[in-house]
Amino acid sequence: MTIPGTGRYRIGVDIGGTFTDGTLVDSATGQVTTSKVLSTPADPATGFIAAVKKLLQSESSIAPGDLEHVVHATTVATNSIIEGKLAKTAFITTEGFRDMLEIARQIRPSLYDLQFVKPPPLVPRQLCFEVSERLDAKGQVVTPLDEQSVAQVVERIAESKVEAVAVCLLHSYRNPDHERRVGEALRARLPGVIISLSSDVVPEFREYLRASTTVINAAVSPIVSRYLKSISEKLEDAGVTAELLVMQSSGGVYPAEAAVRSPVFMVESGPAAGAVAAAALGSSLGYPNVLSFDMGGTTAKVSLIRNGQPNVTKDYSVGGAAQRGTGAFGGASGYPIRTPVVDLVEIGAGGGSIAWVDSGGALRVGPHSAGADPGPVCYGLGGTEPTITDANLVLGRLDPDYFAGGEMPLDVEAAQAAIRVRCADPLGLSVEKAAYGIVEIANTAMVNALRLVSVQRGHDPRDFMLVGFGGAGPAHAVRLAEQAGIPRVLIPVGPGTASALGLLVTDVRMEGSATLIVRSDEVELSRIAAEFKRLETAGRESHKIAASASGDPVFERSVEMRYWGQSFELSVPAPDLPDIDARWMSELVEAFNDAHETAYGFRANGEPVELVNLRLTTVGKIARPQMKKLETTGTDASVAVKGQRDVYFAEDVENSGHEGMVQTSVYDRARLPAGAVFRGPAIIEEPDSTTVIHPSWTVKVDDYGNLVLQR
After folding, report:
1. What is the three-class DSSP state of 481?
2. Is the CB of residue 279 less than 8 Å from the CB of residue 294?
3. Dihedral (CA of 423, 427, 428, 431) sign
4. CA distances from residue 376 to 274, 355, 415 in whole angstroms, order as listed
């Protein structure tokens, strides 16, 4: 087991589809150092350690032993599900429910799509087994567990040579005794096989959702275990002995050992880091309500942060078509998981998204991506399909000699040729107009995603600030804000590696839950208090074992509620009162009515309310690095001008009379002083990203070097 380092430095590494980003923070001074290397899809751990070594080499005074901890965000669990590359897994359930995974839910993501095909079960029927036992909905034994049937099933599983077993017995969330006895029999006979019990993973009602979550946990555990072991070995070889933490889907982190046991909590590890970064940055600068826009090389991800907190949902599916999360059918196309996930929309619109002309003669962009291998045409690594990055290069928005700080020169002529052959000539357009069309089509898709998380959730985009980051995000953020009606944009320092920084501004979080399903006017308040006390005791024990990098535990309570007779519930923070009494319940019900009105546009005061699940999050606070103020100040931005070049802006086509190419000043962001103010059009360059300032927008540099853009 790794141990937390004694130094003051922390490293965060975020592996994306195209680039692997690393961030090193000096906790004492707030100094941030970043690195960016190409991802290595064949072995992501190789790109991970390359980013770490690059950071350590860039700061010669830092020894590997000076690191306090290393935090990692990865999509290895998600990718294994999407690609179907899972460990061979068996499934055990109550007699009569063997086909639970096959039947799934009788809903479809596209109601009138007669060609829709459900994804195949993660466990084939021949590896699904039944044991004789039965509990009722209150957890009372109806049919005792038949030890002989358990022994027979265990032997058949032993003959199947599986790597993992998922156990989900009926109503085990009420009484886990039968499941635990089955688990003991499995461990005794199969000591090297990973065992996941639903009563441990997600002890909540709804049998199929609980079974699906437990199966995913079991099926990805061997893959995650091998991956994290490879990461740990590479870190040790590099002399790094600090604790390895992993980002969870909910926006918290937990130790690598916990990730191996419960990998289902890190399925959406990568996208969550960006939302956490945007929330932390907005809150620290006095902007608690922001829209997070993270555009990388493969996808674009948007989420809404209100009052400094990303929205967290449990209605989520992985491995299906891209959809928004919250809602009864939000995740009907994939495999549902019932663990907390940052509520975001992810679409196939990244810098590497491929542009193409369909059979009807329409220009399309994505969802397929050139990724890191071979990458966009301009990378010169063998790519032949034009991408968004190629389009931005042709439009003059990227400097071919300064991409990735000059480490990766870009081929403008190859990008122009690819766009001409694949898009411009078939459509009868100039190369520049075709490139502009590629960018605008991608922008429209991303604006729709922004509206999904704002307008369609009852929020007015005009009340929010857009935080744009990711390698490609700052090049598109201003145009998205214009189209979505967002008045202000914030571009953080080092936007290309902001997600990696998000890994270093979050806390250790461990989740616990208990099912109630009882009306608020009938529940015994002592029962709620007893359940929360039990969850807190379990949380303290987990914290002692796992949260060595954090401070004393803090508990966050919430209750999932619904009006009596509804099928789906909303999560409501529990009142912060010393006692669970009549006042506590009254405030809880009122908070639920408010949450229901926000989500659905109405409230039903006086209607019976049902308490479905209690949730308790054990939080181990990690000290957050402080932002570093700029040393130079002044309103004159001309000191940062690098030169000028022609850049395509459609807003000026009519006035300029020369195909939208406008002579534009290019600024070196590192030389911009705090307080500098200037107007667009402008290009602001830094090693990991390029910010495009459209005409009629104004830039102001704040005290910490962030760019605040306003129309």
Report:
1. helix
2. no
3. negative
4. 23, 11, 8
The C-alpha atoms of residue 672 and residue 312 are separated, in whole angstroms, by 37
Query: Does some domain include residue 323?
Result: no
Pair 202, 178 in one domain = yes
Tell me the pLDDT band of 330, cut-offs 50, 70 and 90. very low
Q: Provide the residue range defining the domain that includes 119.
A: 81-219
Q: Are strands 641-648 and 9-15 parallel, antiparallel or unpaired?
A: unpaired
**Whole-angstrom distance, CA of residue 121 vs CA of residue 100:** 9
Q: State the DSSP code for 628.
A: P
Nearest to 666 by CA among 657, 678, 654, 651: 678
Residues 159 and 241 grouped into a single domain: no
Per-residue pLDDT tens digits for 32-74: 888 888 888 778 888 899 988 888 887 667 778 778 889 998 8
Amino acid found at 406? G
Task: Return the closest-CA partner of residue 314 out of 332, 340, 281.
Answer: 340
Q: What gap in Å lies between CA 226 and CA 89, rounded to an integer?
A: 16
- How far is Cα 281 from Cα 490, in angstroms, rounded to an integer? 10
Find the mean pLDDT for residues 239-260.
Answer: 88
List 32's β-bridge partners, or say none.
25
Q: Are the C-beta atoms of 363 and 347 separated by less than 8 Å?
A: no
Q: Is the dihedral of CA 693, 695, 697, 702 positive or negative?
A: positive
- DSSP, res 421: I
Structure tokens that stand for 96 in this block: 């009569």
Q: Is the dihedral of CA 527, 529, 530, 534 positive or negative?
A: positive
Residue from 356, 376, 374 nearest 438 by CA: 356
Poorest-pLDDT segment among 125-129, 176-180, 627-631: 627-631
36 and 87 co-located in one domain: no
Instruction: Please determine, for residue 524, whether its predicted confidence score (pLDDT) is greater than 70.
Output: yes
Residue 696 is encoded by which pair of tokens?
A: 């009629």
Share of the chain above pLDDT 70, in %: 94
Collapsed DSSP state (helix, strand, coil) of residue 426: helix
Residue 556 CA, distance from chain mean position: 21
- In this structure, the answer to whether residues 193 and 249 fall within a common structural domain is no
Computed from CA positions of residues 191, 126, 333, 446, in that sequence, does the dihedral angle turn out positive or negative? positive
| DSSP strands (E only) in 95-156 | 128-131, 134-135, 141-143
DSSP codes, 290-324: EEEEEE-SS-EEEEEEETTEE-EES-EEESSS---
Instruction: Check if the beta carbon of residue 419 is closer than 8 Å to that of residue 395.
Output: no
| SS3 state of residue 245 | strand
